[in-house]
UniProtKB/TrEMBL annotation:
This is Na(+)/H(+) exchange regulatory cofactor NHE-RF1. InterPro entries: EBP50_C, NHER, NHERF-1/NHERF-2, PDZ, PDZ_sf. Keywords: Cell projection, Membrane, Repeat, Wnt signaling pathway. The keyword Kinase does not apply. It comes from Podarcis lilfordi. Residues 18-94, 171-251 form the PDZ domain.
Length: 285
């Protein structure tokens, strides 16, 4: 990440991750009622995490091009089309709010600091500029026009195949360390199955890509659907010093359940199940 030199000052950030064997290691999604694309999750020890990217950041530019009004798939395509590395200009929610109040457009120039006149205005607690206050109605008007033209429906249809590919189980392989694997299991009374409650930092579990709230589908190739907590623990222990867990996050879990399909290793790379009418706006990059 390029240092903004401003300590705790609220400024945009420029994150430049280099693509690793598993991609950049972050998840992108749209939020209802908000314009733009947001970082949903940053995988531990990934190029994205090392670049300074954070969950909740709003994506403003990709390789110097503003993407605030682009569709989810357009943004995903831009990032995927960038060879080797990508430049992402992002803002967290507090910085986003501050820039809007000052009437400033978020650009790469602001990474190193605000213009002098705006810095004085920020220090004096100046009034919210009229143009910033009017920004939301403009967005609402644009959304209205999109709906009238039917663009939203066309865009979702175009994205459907890509989204199905991205909602998949994950296979996490780990070797026991001095303190075990480094994760805890728990049950949720409201939901069937066994879930990952916590993943210890710098543990074998974290290195394998296991995440909190993942649901366990298989242990060492054996399906755990309908099994009790003790059964899952025993299956993990029976693997000795190594274990292999097939898991799904909450979005993938919901998708497969609505398709009435139990995830398996066949879904890691093969054809994902099709669910007519379900369009989950989520990207994994």
């Amino acid at each position: 990440m390029i240092d903004n030199g401003g300590g705790s000052e609220l400024l945009p950030r420029l994150c430049c991750p280099e693509k690793g064997p598993n991609g950049y290691g972050f998840h992108l999604h749209g939020e209802k009622g908000k314009v733009g694309q947001f970082i949903r999750l940053v995988e531990p020890d990934s190029p994205a995490e090392k670049s300074g990217l954070r969950a909740g950041d709003r994506l403003v530019e990709v390789n110097g091009d503003n993407v605030e009004k682009e569709s989810h798939q357009q943004v995903v395509n831009r990032i995927r089309g960038s060879p080797g590395s990508v430049r992402l200009l992002v803002v967290d929610s507090a910085t986003d709010e501050r820039l809007q109040k000052l009437g400033l457009e978020c650009t790469e120039d602001l990474v190193r600091g605000l213009p002098d006149e705006k810095l004085e205005e920020a220090k004096s607690g100046g009034q919210e500029p009229r143009e910033a206050a009017q920004r939301e109605p403009d967005v609402a008007e644009e959304d209205k026009k999109k709906k009238a033209d039917g663009e939203k429906e066309e865009e979702e249809e175009a994205n459907h195949a890509a989204q199905r590919k991205e909602l998949r189980p994950r296979l996490c392989r780990m070797k026991k360390g001095p303190n075990g694997y480094g994760f805890n299991l728990h049950s949720d009374k409201a939901k069937p199955g066994q879930y990952v409650r916590a993943v210890d930092p710098d543990s074998p579990a974290e290195a394998s890509g296991l995440l909190p709230q993942d649901r366990i589908i298989e242990v060492n190739g054996v399906c755990m659907e309908g099994k009790q907590h003790s059964d899952v623990v025993s299956a993990i222990r029976s693997g000795g010093d190594e274990t292999e867990l097939l898991v799904v996050d909450s979005l993938a879990d919901e998708f497969f359940k609505k398709c009435n399909v139990i995830p398996s290793e066949a879904h890691l790379k093969g054809e994902a199940p099709i669910l007519a009418g379900i369009l989950l706006r989520i990207g994994v990059i």
